[in-house]
Amino acid sequence: MQPDGKSMRRSKSSPQLARARNQIDPSASAPACVFGVSFENRLGLAAGLDRTGRNFEELARCGVGHIEIGTLTDSADLEFRYCGHRRRTKVGISIASRRPGLDQQVIDDYLRLSRNLSSTCDFLVANLSSPHHARNGNSRGIERLLEALKLEHDTHQDEPRCPLLVKLGLHEASMELPVAVNIARDLRLDGVVIATPSMRILERVSRELHGIAVISVGGIGTLNDAKRRLCAGASLVQVHSAYARRGPACIADILGDGGHS
Ligand SMILES: Cc1cc2nc3c(=O)[nH]c(=O)nc-3n(C[C@H](O)[C@H](O)[C@H](O)COP(=O)(O)O)c2cc1C
Q: Domain 6-258: which CATH class?
């Protein structure tokens, strides 16, 4: 595993390097340094399983390398105390506005959450994947939101900076990649969480992102599912439904011999 630290945070790996690294060991149990954060393994629990962080310690016992807490729409809802990078299971926090659409009020909600929560996690995810909030398709709004979040992150944070990711829900129905993918690439966000069961979409988006880290979620339940996502360009993978159905046993399966349970 590569060492964690400021220099790693600033260095961007090329897609070739990312792919080569994954091809050397595409197993979810392999340790990884992604957007400057050292993960014990490449498997995590997706947002929605621990909305407030209340069950973090219990969930972490299953041996995942990270847990994405949330989605939080109010920072006062966080029920979790962060102890920094020494923590074995890394902490992502997913944020969103409760309001629909993408007007200035919604952008301000995301900015407030980002300001309040960046120092309490290892990476922050701006969730744009909710189908109920009518944010998809508003390219100008998405651009303004991500630009504002990126500016906030680049100018108002002490080192070490908290990596900023965006979560997008992508479906086969549209052959057009959402404009958010290009915006994430052009702004050089630290990563994109791609929620899709489609390998074709995952491969395409990973290519488009030119080396920006990809977390793949959607339809992962076996060791082989995870391997295929890592070979398709993902640096980390997450599970939701499989864990909800099968509990820690599915983590042990996906991690293979590298699992703890
Ligand atoms: C009951 C439920 C609640 C969810 N809540 C959230 C959430 O709060 N935030 C979020 O980003 N994704 C949420 N998701 C989406 C999951 O994180 C994940 O992207 C999706 O379920 C696909 O992964 P899977 O095939 O492993 O279930 C939720 C999914 C389910 C089924």
A: alpha beta
Mean pLDDT of the 163-180 span: 79
Atom number of ligand 1 nearest to Cα 240: 26
77's CB contacts (< 8 A; 6+ apart) are 51, 52
Residue ranges of domains in the chain: 6-258
Residue 7 is predicted with a pLDDT of: 36
Strand partners, 45: 67, 239
Distance CA 117, CA 77 (A): 11
Q: How many CA atoms lie within 13 A of 238 on its CB side?
A: 25
Ligand 1 pocket (Cβ < 6 Å) reads: 46-48, 70-71, 94, 127, 129, 167, 195, 217-220, 239-242
The per-residue pLDDT for 260 is 46
* Global confidence as pTM: 0.89
For residue 222, give the 3-state DSSP assignment: coil
* Closest approach atom of ligand 1 to CA 239: 26
Amino acid identity for residue 218 in this structure: G
Alpha carbon of 22 to those of 9, 13, 60, 224, 232: distances in Å?
19, 12, 24, 14, 9
For the stretch 201-220, pLDDT in tens is 999 999 989 889 999 999 99
Interval between CA 186 and ligand 1 midpoint (Å): 27
pLDDT at 15 over 60: no
Residue type, 58: E
Helices 179-186, 199-208: crossing angle, 10 deg rounding: 30
